[in-house]
Design a protein that fits this description.
The complex is a heterotrimer of chains A (392), B (159) and C (286). With 392 residues, chain A is α+β, with helices and mostly antiparallel strands. Chain A folds into two domains: 212 residues, no CATH class; 105 residues, no CATH class. Chain A contains 15 helices and 16 strands. Chain A is globular and about 65 Å long. With 159 residues, chain B is of the alpha+beta class. Chain B has four helices and eight strands; from the N terminus they run ααββββββββαα. Chain B has a four-stranded antiparallel beta sheet. A four-stranded antiparallel beta sheet of chain B has the order 2-7-4-5, with no helix packed on it. In chain B, α3 crosses α4. Chain B is globular and about 45 Å long. The termini of chain B are far apart. Chain C has 286 residues and is of the alpha/beta class. Chain C has two domains: 88 residues, Beta Barrel (Elongation Factor Tu (Ef-tu), domain 3), CATH 2.40.30.10; 129 residues, Nucleotide-binding domain of ferredoxin-NADP reductase (FNR) module (Rossmann fold, 3-Layer(aba) Sandwich), CATH 3.40.50.80. The longest helix of chain C has 13 residues. The chains are: A alpha+beta (392), B alpha+beta (159), C alpha/beta (286). Chains A and B meet through loops of A and loops of B.
Chain lengths: 392, 159, 286
């Protein structure tokens, strides 16, 4: 510990040129770092060793069915919106072995997967994605039966959030109350300031937990001033004002429940390919399949768990057939789960407004538009079908 | 010993419970009590359908005779049910066989007595035909449900 | 919003929630052509004793895992499951022989409201394999017969040959403590019982709606028809329990497969009151 007071450690300013100081501090505290990085023309989440691995100077263009990287005219490290990759992949792997059975003296002996990645820092996580971690915590950690794989990966995480100054047209975090600022759950909250001016390009670091303070205390940084705070507030304010997509959550769970038979579900099913892309990029989707993978030569049987999607025909399979054979019912399941029944099940919305499902939908379906149409109630057309309009 | 009138016995039967008492009185005039021993034939396919039965106790097996296989029971009519629709329509011929599954006590209502009255009193006739239509709907629905074969293996496929 | 969001059943697994506990098959009874009852005994540690209506996840080496209801409550950590071979994992389970070792997780889910039925008339309606999860209810009633009013058991099956627990049904019938009625979809030579759907037998049951509770288990269509029949006769929807069947892979509310609207069949169910599921089971493909 230095002679700095706690308050001084809590809010400090780090010049952009000294960003590696943060990585050094994290390494010194024993945290390997995961963060955004450019791979295959997209920003994904992967191991980061220094600021060189970050997507410096890269921005993105996102719209319904559109995602592409664009060169920025500055050196911003975090000048993009929701990454194409999800942090979820590192907390709740797409493929995991839950246990392995082998036969010992005629009976199976089952060894649980004890993989424990230990300390890891997630650097650069946005408010929306931070909220997604909290949503998955409720599902996978805070139930009666905590998930062993998620628990092992969730423990010992250090969450370093970065306020979002560059939302995409697909974003609606302001509606879901998750961004663009860094909400609860972060150990350190960062805001990138004045990237367009190399002389003033800097980060405001706010340590929010003891673990965060231990890292920030190691960084050579000056104490933040009121001007730094104002600049950070302006970043968030400006970002918020640029978000155009909205979801009106008032009465939405009830409206979607009432709209179970709305013709819009059939309408969207005409466009939906049931490909499941939205569920794969969603940071809160948690559905999985399990299967046994016996290895005859090794004499083992592995219980393997893989991500599943409610858009798969087999997702609701019972002997004899699927409960939800039509794409319409499957889209309804996904959308109403996110915005309606998730509340019943876990006390929150299942959506954090990151907009990935809109950008990564190959046919550009915008979930906010679909649920708005259903929540608006019966259409003229439905009224006719129900015989409520009688012209004759 | 308590003596009950036929009208009272009709009133005690589920099928007739809701009909107006004047119609019930009239029906009682066309009714008599009958008892069938287990295995006794109540209706014979192809013979004249002279009326219908309101089952008071016991079960009646309804089916169709199949050569070499005997009576194939297709449904069971229970206490509280009525048995027989063929008396309502030409050619007034039983379409089914019905056999007492156990000792059956029933009220038999005679078409010869009933039909002329119902023709002359359309309000009562309408009511009774409605009640029979509901019975038929329930019978058809029950048959549909069995056609679904909900317990069956035919609908099961390997995963 | 929902009052059922938290699991009500007992039995939180002490080990990793996805890890089966080895159990040895100590008894195999072939009930019908496609149904087998297995009695299992823990190889070392067992699981928490299940209650009537709960299920476990049964695992067969190399085949996988399926949810199976307990069909009797046994002592000494023994587990009794009746399994219908509907291909896949159930085929492997049904082919088990004495001495085989299977894995068990659980018990999971909410059981039947037997306590709520005390002091009431009880109508139990089972269709096909649906008699398996209800058999422990009959056992519980017979063990404390005076605690309950009139108790009726209506059992539907496809044919006489597919009636489960035939000897036990006869025994219950002879004891006259429970009004046992059986009805089959199709008669076969020698069948002297009823032919029709289960509601055909319900028609003849005297029911006092105010003091009746009902437990119904069978194909979803059958449960819907029975629940409608009972509510039409004045039984409160909240007094009718049904057991909901859905795809289940984790049984602990984390795999997402068994959702029925706001409910997870694995933890909010499988036994759910009709008043909360009626509107869900009538929405197409929910």
């Amino acid at each position: 510990m230095t002679s700095q007071t706690l308050a001084e450690i809590d809010r400090v300013v780090l010049p952009a040129a000294g960003l590696d100081d943060l990585f050094d501090s994290l390494h010194a505290e024993g945290y390997p770092v995961l963060g955004p990085t450019v791979r295959d023309g997209a920003i994904v989440i992967g191991p980061i060793t220094s600021s060189d691995d970050l997507p410096r100077g890269w921005g993105d263009e996102q719209d319904a069915g559109v995602y592409r990287l664009v060169r920025r005219d500055d050196d911003a490290y975090f000048g993009f919106a929701a990454p194409a990759g999800t942090w979820k992949r590192h907390l709740f792997p797409a493929h995991s072995i839950l246990w392995r059975a082998r036969v010992v003296r005629g009976a199976p002996v089952i060894e649980e997967n004890e993989d424990h990645p230990g300390r890891r820092a997630l650097v650069g996580i946005r408010g929306c994605d931070l909220a997604a971690v909290a949503v998955q915590d409720r599902v996978l950690l805070h139930g009666a039966h905590p998930d062993p794989v998620y628990s092992a990966r969730r423990a010992d995480l250090l969450l370093v959030g970065v306020a979002c100054g560059t939302p995409a047209s697909t974003c609606f975090c302001t509606s879901m109350g998750t961004g663009p600022s860094v909400g609860g759950g972060a150990d350190i909250a960062m805001t990138e300031l004045d990237a367009e001016d190399p002389a003033r390009h800097r980060f405001l670091l706010e340590a929010r937990t003891d673990a965060g303070r231990a890292v920030v205390a190691r960084v050579s940084a000056r104490t933040a001033t009121a001007a730094d705070d104002d600049a950070a507030d302006a970043v968030v304010r400006r970002a918020g004002s640029r978000i155009t997509r909205t979801v009106d959550n008032a009465g939405l769970p009830e409206a979607l429940r009432a709209g179970a038979e709305h013709p819009r579900w059939d309408d969207v099913a005409e466009r939906c390919l049931s490909c499941g892309s939205c569920t794969m990029v969603c940071p809160t989707c948690f559905c999985t399949d399990v299967r046994d993978e016996p290895n005859v030569l090794a004499g083992t049987d592995d219980r393997v768990r893989v991500w599943a999607s409610c858009f798969e025909l087999g997702h609701s399979y019972l002997h004899g057939g699927s409960v939800r054979p039509s794409p319409s019912a499957r889209y309804r399941q996904w959308a109403t789960h996110k915005f309606s029944t998730w509340w019943d099940q876990f006390g929150t919305s299942g959506c954090v407004g990151c907009g990935r499902c809109i950008a990564w939908c190959p046919v550009g379906i915008d979930v906010t538009e679909e649920i708005r149409a259903v929540a608006a109630g019966p259409t003229q057309e439905q009224g006719v079908a129900d015989g409520r309009h009688d012209d004759g | 010993m308590v003596v009950t009138t036929m009208a009272e016995e009709l009133a005690a039967h589920r099928f007739f419970r809701t009909i107006p008492s004047d119609l019930r009185e009239r029906l009682a005039g066309c009714a008599r009590n009958v008892v069938f021993a287990p295995g006794e034939r109540i209706c014979v396919e192809g013979t004249h359908a002279s009326g219908f039965f309101a089952i008071r106790t016991g079960r009646v097996n309804v089916g169709i005779y199949v050569p070499h296989q005997g009576l194939q029971v297709l449904e069971t009519r229970h206490a509280g049910d009525v048995l027989g629709f063929s008396w309502l329509f030409p050619p007034y011929r039983w379409q089914i066989d019905a056999v007492a599954g156990e000792r059956v006590r029933a009220i038999e209502l005679h078409a010869d007595c009933l039909l002329p009255y119902l023709e002359e009193h359309p309000a009562g006739g309408y009511l009774l035909v409605r009640m029979f239509a509901q019975e038929m709907e329930e019978t058809i629905q029950s048959t549909r449900l069995r056609l679904l074969d909900v317990y069956g293996r035919d609908r099961v496929h390997a995963r | 919003m929902s009052t059922l969001a938290e699991p009500r059943g007992p039995g939180v697994a002490a080990r990793g929630s996805m890890t089966p506990i080895p159990h040895r098959v100590v008894d195999v009874v072939h009930e019908t052509r496609e149904t087998v009852t297995l009695t299992l005994e823990p190889v070392s540690d067992g699981i928490v004793a299940p209650v009537a209506g709960q299920f476990t996840m049964l695992w067969a080496w190399g085949a996988g895992e399926v949810p199976i209801s307990v069909s009797a409550l046994a002592a000494d950590g023994r587990l009794v499951h009746t399994i219908r071979d509907v291909a896949g994992v159930t085929k492997t389970l049904c082919a088990s022989r004495q001495g085989d070792v299977l894995g068990v997780r659980g018990p999971y889910g909410c059981g039947w409201g037997i306590d709520a039925a005390r002091g009431h008339d009880l109508v139990i309606v089972a269709g096909g394999i649906g008699l398996a999860p209800l058999r422990p209810v009959v056992h519980a009633v017979l063990a404390e017969r005076s605690e309950f009013g009139r108790v009726s058991l209506v059992v539907g099956a496809r044919t006489e040959q597919e009636l489960l627990f035939r000897a036990e049904l006869d025994e219950w019938w002879h004891r006259h403590e429970v009004d046992v009625r059986t009805i089959v979809d199709r008669s076969s030579p020698g069948w002297s019982g009823s032919v029709g759907v289960v509601t055909g037998e319900l028609v003849g049951l005297e029911i006092d709606p105010a003091s009746t509770r009902a437990m119904v288990c069978g194909p979803e269509v059958m449960m819907r028809v029975v629940a409608q029949h009972l509510t039409d006769r004045g039984v409160a929807a909240s007094a009718i329990e049904v057991s909901v069947e859905r795809n289940m892979q984790c049984a602990v509310k984390t795999c997402g497969h068994c959702q029925v609207g706001p409910f997870f069949a694995c933890t909010d169910g499988p036994v759910l009151p009709w008043d909360v599921v009626a509107s869900l089971l009538t929405v197409r493909e929910l």
